[in-house]
Amino acid sequence: MKQTSATHEHRLRILLLQGSPVQELNINVLQLICESEISDFDESRPYQFKPLYHAEGIVSCLFEQRKSQSRGRWLIIYSIEKGKILQSKPLRSTANIFVRNNKQYLYYGTKSEPFDGQRRWVLHGFSLECFEWLPRRIILWDLAGCDIGSTVCFEIFDDYLYGVSSQELTELEDTEWTASGHPLNSFYYAFRFRLGDHSTIDILPRSALWRRGATDGPIDDRWNHLQLGQDERSGQVSIYETRKEWLCSWSRRSCYSKQLIFPSKSYFGGSNTDGQCYEGWDDATQHTVSPEGTVHRGDNGFSSLTFDLSNSPVRSYNLSCRAFVDIVSTTTSSSPATKRLRLRVRRQLDPISKSDRYSPSPNDTSDPANSLDDEEVSLWPADQGDKLPDGSLDTPLDRYIDGLLNPQAYFDEVDWAMDERVLVYSPKTLHQLDGPRSIILISFDPALHFEGLGCWDENLMSPRWVGDRSGKSDIHSECTPNTAIMNLESTVYETPRIRGLDLSHTIRSGGSTRKRKRGGSPPRYRTAAGAGIKYHADTETNTTRTLQMS
């Protein structure tokens, strides 16, 4: 957020989605800055304030203010549980800044350390138990990449901070793909270190991090998405990279996974910094392919349900359900100039079907035009005007959900974030960046309950909430949101202003409530509302909650 007037109040609003009840924390930004004891803060001058990260009840924010001769930059660390600021730290640089934390430690990093005419990543650690900065900073001399989420990624799992890059410092980035000087193989760079202990940084050898070969074709970098994930059962940490590769005459979007199996300390000899390969490995000539079980083949461009980049504002891969989950922009026949956002899910085929239809290499020799890609893709809601099996057209439920997903008819960009449980996005127009915006949340978490969230009434053909006088009886208790009061002196908790729908229940005649069967939304939504999404590795649900917050 950008403060341009001393009379215009800004609030930091935090909606906690884990636990019950779901309530909103509302913090006065100006008061938060003043309590941070930022030196030389001038309340009359414009400033910028934005949240960077939240985990384990810790919110990290960035404050910046320009002055005539300088520019102040501060990292503000706030505890929701304690209701106070834990630390405020002046920053030398905010280039590519990121923050990660667990309950014990917080780390932030910037690509700001000058070396050999370039910049290197440097990390700083903070103890959330002792409330002090760790004495040693960490300089990652060999970590390339600058776009977090695209070419580089950082995450905390258990007691380690992991980092991975899809680039290498030795890569000839400006070399043409078909030129003789282009490297035949590409490798990831991956490291980890124990939180609070920086004496040893574990770096995997290149031989364990093969990424792709030149025969896999050029990459359309605009589709790249890099993330780290941990298996919910085994705890194994893996790289997941989604990329679009151009083959001889067509392209395919795929998600590749690679396990990060760190050898014992005896192999590393403390810290491995030279990145030497195993004996016998010649990365200049050897070529390999990704094992089929580690690749999810996506769109090949021949499906009727494929969307180009401009009409795919949200492009993600859900690790929990092994599916491409996107928000795509379409138009209607009645309003061809109006953008309509919808959920698009492309599931992963079962092993038997997959082996029948795909070869293990991206440059598949089969005819992609003959593939049955449409069978793997679900759009939700369905096209308006499409006939249902009973011959009827789109229902009032369709139209209501469509209104939730599309709070405004026109937009230029979409801000978004996603994890295993929820997808959140917010459309915006570039000529009204400081105006109010709606936030849309699509949840697949059956334990998530919001104040004021209604169920669909099949009699009224409209949503119905607790206390709705138009109904004859109360809604089933499972549709009734839990309520509680959270008492923290320095914070204000409010009920979020929500307009939304819980699709896991419907209200039938007589006011009775029908709970969706496990894995069974109505036939219209069975594959669309979650597309058989797995919330946990061993629990399958189609529970979907669509919300619009303002």
UniProtKB/TrEMBL annotation:
Composition-biased stretches (Polar residues): 358-369
Disordered: annotated span: 352-373, 505-532
Protein name: F-box domain-containing protein
